[in-house]
């Protein structure tokens, strides 16, 4: 039996227990389940049972589950519990989880949450909320293990045992001076491999990979991916350690950025909510602007067709090849733009590489265009015998369109990057619209010249 079937059966069993109000059995079953799965189960419950189930969970588990719930469920639970219960939850949450929650909740709920936090926690949360959106500061957590370089390994372990319970990770520890300036990093593995009397200054790594609070979160994700880090320290403008970013936060960033790029590549405005939880109105609102732009830009194609209407009025057969040329050009351009956008996202391609990319795509365009032209010529000569010049016109247009599409497809995303725009907007729909116009101009110009020569 697959894991998916097992999970569905288990969730169904839990839902039945909740429906039958067998809360004692339900609580025993929930204690054996991961907090992520409990949150997923609670999303299936009605509002009343959501609060009941949440209240039956032990305090520590309830906080972990709360952090995994969607904003709507969190808001409902906050409005249904006492100030004391709310205070306990917020104080137990990691700061980055509390900040993520507050960014999604309505203003009235946020005020109640902040009202029921300690002054220190409230100050810390407000500090995090003031960092720029999508910056390293906005996704970091303040719960980390900070050590001093004059500590011994034995003292370090004692400190970790005492303070590590509230830290998001204890595997990597950070060495600071009295003013919290970051001096080095040491892992628990290195502590275990050295004698108790060894001082940290002799084993810590002083070449620390770090980011500033204003660094873009996507750049942070790229850096952690590049160096294979489980967490990365975040410092302020004076090189003081203010927090760390862990791998789970980076995975969320990568998912958000990938989703945003996919939506932009499909000519939609990005949406922060899951598809099934996004209203029809919001989905339409996200799609209409780009569709309007692309629809209006397609009038260029219509203008080109009007300009050359005498050409295909004289030779109607020319019209039948327009869809093939436009589709092939659009697909060719999309292939190049997709590869270049991916390369830039992974840091493989920089704007300074534009000439290298252009030269490579031109050569690819020549090879691809030649193969497509030869195959098309053979097909057209069989399908339309006696129309040699028309066949030649079509295959030369095909070749030129593919080369032009590859050139446009690779340069537009790089151009967008130079202009500080997201390269993803230069994906399939935009490339196709531009290449369609180019392919038609190439096709009809060639048709007019070649057929006039033949006449």
Automatic annotation (TrEMBL):
It is found in: Cell membrane; Membrane. Homodimer. The keyword Signal does not apply. Keywords: CBS domain, Cell membrane, Magnesium, Membrane, Metal-binding, Transmembrane, Transmembrane helix, Transport. Residues 204-260 form the CBS domain. The chain crosses the membrane at residues 288-306, 311-329, 362-382, 389-414, 426-446. SMART domains: CBS (SM00116), MgtE_N (SM00924). Belongs to the SLC41A transporter family. It is a multi-pass membrane protein. Acts as a magnesium transporter. It comes from the Bacteria. InterPro entries: CBS_dom, CBS_dom_sf, Mg_transptr_MgtE_intracell_dom, MgtE_N_sf, MgtE_transporter, SLC41_membr_dom, SLC41_membr_dom_sf. Pfam families: CBS, MgtE, MgtE_N. Its main location: membrane. Signal peptide: none annotated. This is Magnesium transporter MgtE.
């Amino acid at each position: 039996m697959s894991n998916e079937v097992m999970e569905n059966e288990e969730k169904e069993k839990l839902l039945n227990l909740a429906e039958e109000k067998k809360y004692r059995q339900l609580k025993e079953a929930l204690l054996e389940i991961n907090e992520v799965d409990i949150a997923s189960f609670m999303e299936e419950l009605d509002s009343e049972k959501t609060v009941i189930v949440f209240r039956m969970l032990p305090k520590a588990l309830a906080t972990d589950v709360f952090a995994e719930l969607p904003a709507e469920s969190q808001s409902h639970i906050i409005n249904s519990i006492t100030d004391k219960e709310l205070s306990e939850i917020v104080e137990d949450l990691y700061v980055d989880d509390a900040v993520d929650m507050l960014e999604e909740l309505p203003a009235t709920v946020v005020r109640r949450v902040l009202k029921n936090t300690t002054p220190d926690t409230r100050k810390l949360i407000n500090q995090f909320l003031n960092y720029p959106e999508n910056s390293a500061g906005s996704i970091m957590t303040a719960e980390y293990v900070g050590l001093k370089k004059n500590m011994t390994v034995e003292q370090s372990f004692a400190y970790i045992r005492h303070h590590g319970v509230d830290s998001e990770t204890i595997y990597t520890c950070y060495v600071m001076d009295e003013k919290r300036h970051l001096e080095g990093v040491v892992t628990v593995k290195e502590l275990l491999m050295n004698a108790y009397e060894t001082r940290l200054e002799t084993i810590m790594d002083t070449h620390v990979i770090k980011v500033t609070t204003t660094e873009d979160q996507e750049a942070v994700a790229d850096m952690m991916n590049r160096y294979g880090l489980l967490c990365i320290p975040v410092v302020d403008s004076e090189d003081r350690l203010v927090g760390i970013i862990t791998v789970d936060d980076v995975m969320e960033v990568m998912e958000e950025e990938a989703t945003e790029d996919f939506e932009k590549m499909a000519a939609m405005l990005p949406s922060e909510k899951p598809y099934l939880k996004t209203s029809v109105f919001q989905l339409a609102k996200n799609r209409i602007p780009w569709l309007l732009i692309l629809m209006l830009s397609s009038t260029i194609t219509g203008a080109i067709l009007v300009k050359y209407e005498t050409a295909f009025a004289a030779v109607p057969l020319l019209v039948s090849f327009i869809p093939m040329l436009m589709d092939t050009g659009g697909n060719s351009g999309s292939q190049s733009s997709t590869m270049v956008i991916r390369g830039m996202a992974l840091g493989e391609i920089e704007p300074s590489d534009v000439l290298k990319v252009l030269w490579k795509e031109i050569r690819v365009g020549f090879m691809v265009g030649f193969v497509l032209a030869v195959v098309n010529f053979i097909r057209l000569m069989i399908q339309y015998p006696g129309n040699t010049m028309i066949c030649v016109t079509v295959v030369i247009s095909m070749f030129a369109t593919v080369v032009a599409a590859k050139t446009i497809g690779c340069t537009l995303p790089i151009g967008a990057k130079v202009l500080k725009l997201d390269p993803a907007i230069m994906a399939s729909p935009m490339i196709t619209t531009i290449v369609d116009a180019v392919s038609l101009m190439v096709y009809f110009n060639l048709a007019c010249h070649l057929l006039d020569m033949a006449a």
